[in-house]
Amino acid sequence: MRLNFWNGTYTLQRHLMELLCSKKIHRELKKESCRKIGNGFLVMALICCLMFVSYQATSAVITSAKVGDRELPIYCVDTTEKKVALSFDAAWGAEDFPRIMDVLDKHKVKVTFFMTGGWVEDNPDCVKELVKRGHDLGNHSEHHYDMTTISQEEKDSELKTVHDKGKKLTGYEMYLFRPPYGAYDNDVIKTAYAMHYYPIQWSVDSLDWKNYGVDSIVTTVCNHKALAPGAIILCHNGAKYTADALDAMLTNLEEQGYKIVPISKLIMKKNYHMDATGKQIADDAEKKKDDGGGNTLTCVFPGFFWLLKQTDIQISPAKHFCSA
Question: Which of these is catalytic: 144, 236, 244, 273?
């Protein structure tokens, strides 16, 4: 009887122990399961936050001509290729036009001519010759007004009138616009884009219109502090010494290793934005900032590393992060 009692007691104790162990194991499993579920939620939160930050970073990249509250024309282009664009404003005179064409042919160079409506009307053969020789036609407005001082209706007309004249004469669809005097404001730039034009300024001014002489033009352009890959050079076909200086200027630029191209071959047509200096930059150049070792820099939110710690996720030391 006693033995049976103790045997029963031992059996009961064993069952109780097994039950307690079972409950303990269950609790541990439950805790482990909760921890894994919690980690899963943290991982999901991490992914969502990264997606949000990525979206915000992408949407913050300027994809137009706007920088802050300012609308900017293209002054120059961000490029690693050693090329520059040469442009001529044509608002008066064509006496030196044949000489300019011959020098450009000699150097096998194509350029951009920004023409006013009056110049197109007075020199239709020159306009046709430009297209025949493969140069860009650019719009320089109908009357050479300061575009910031006229109404919106007049702005539209200043661009459209010249566009229609050029198209009727040559069939060429112009899409480059340079505001007269380089004068612009937000409305002028918006108008240009609305009418399917790229607004163009310059980064290197030859100052040929000041009539200082041949040497002055060559020195001003070829030693200009802004002369660099992607620069846009401004000349005037009607200035007194431009035709005389052109050969020496092109020779000097070529000796410096520059390839001279028309603006249409320099600027980007899409997927770009501007910096505060008016430099046109490809969107990809901002999205793919490299740390020198092929590792993309990624901006993250302040709680990123806390979440990583909670989930025991390991980050390769090859990746770098910066605080947002």
Answer: 236
